[in-house]
Amino acid sequence: MNKIQTTCNYCSLACNMDFYVENESIKKVVPSEKYPVNKGFSCIKGLNLDKQLTSDDFPKNPILKTPNGREEISWDSAYSLFSQKLKDITDKYGKESVAAISTGQLALEEMALVGHVFRNYVGGQLDGNTRLCMATSVVAHKQSFGFDAPPYTLNDFELSDTIIFTGANPVVAHPIIWDRVRKNKNKKVIVIDIRRSETAINADYFFCIKPKSDLVLYYTIANYLIEKNWIDNSYIENFSENFEDFKNHVSKFSIDDIEETVGITKEEFITLATLIHEGDAVSFWWTMGINQSYQAVRTAQGIINLAVMTGNMGRPGTGANSITGQCNAMGSRLFSNTTGLYGGGEYADEAKRKFVGEALGLDPAIFPTKPTLPYNVIIEKIISGEIKALWILCTNPRHSWINNYEFQKAIEKLELFVVQDLYPNTD
Ligand code: SF4
Question: Is residue 75 scored above 90 in pLDDT?
Fold first, then answer.
């Protein structure tokens, strides 16, 4: 049997799995033992990666919708039809009349290739579903650190003595992360959430807060730590800016109001602040419970500021760390050629254009001069008739777009609608 090592794309961990293949058929799927992320372990989703590929409804050929129903066509016909129609539409309406929406589920090389072809050569709009997922976190990181990159490694889960999850449920959503947490024998796990999640049930401390109260909680903790002088003054002085303004701002958030504003008692609040103060390596983690919530950018920055002011940055087991939802969310952010140049950098930065052009062996004039239209505007412009063709890559906006009836309306206006997916039965 041949062993083919590949990546599970169902969540942000991107575990590696070994597919054992015989006579072009998958016989079994086993987590890769030596892969540093999952080290021979995986969740049930990864173990079932082959099920769709081997199921009877897995289409072997492209399917074309015709007035008489759906018919299978050859790959050659599909390629010709797709490229010819795309060309006809761009010839008639201009390059910006075609769009694609991709996903953080694509592997990095595929992401880079789609971004390169669709943005550089076709000249169309291309955005990813990662825009819906954690654009707020991107802004928080860019504004706080000057660069979009959550500063942690998986090892930090094993090196932190105080692990604080807010709006995250890794027991269910990121089981490999939870496995790393369990391996850490010297830790306290703290969960801040509006519901008693599976992670909250397994935590050492659970603080059940009111919906939309996260930001007030973080500002109140910041104020309390400052009042107690439980802060790292030397770190603040060397590595932060405008601390006095921040101090003035949070001074309005008093522990006396905490029960009414956040829904936890004063005693609970003091326990939480003391845990942050007493930890030697405190790490803060969040995911979609923050990213897709009320005042998400400021809330993420409320967490970042706590890490900075207590000096819990840049050391093993610390950090203000947003956990992504998809296996290649960062690849989509840095290599899809959508909001910045391939590999990072602004479109208007001539030096960066030259650098990327040299790296790719291309004339920089081919690169776009501005970011793509974002996901929501692509849909609006389909409805208004300016975008005529849409290519969906491995995502299901009819289900995941916030107003999915609006998406249905958009599809009906298109002259060309192409869906690329493993599953033939998505909406
Ligand atoms: S933890 Fe995530 S990446 Fe790993 S097997 Fe499960 S779904 Fe796949």
Answer: yes
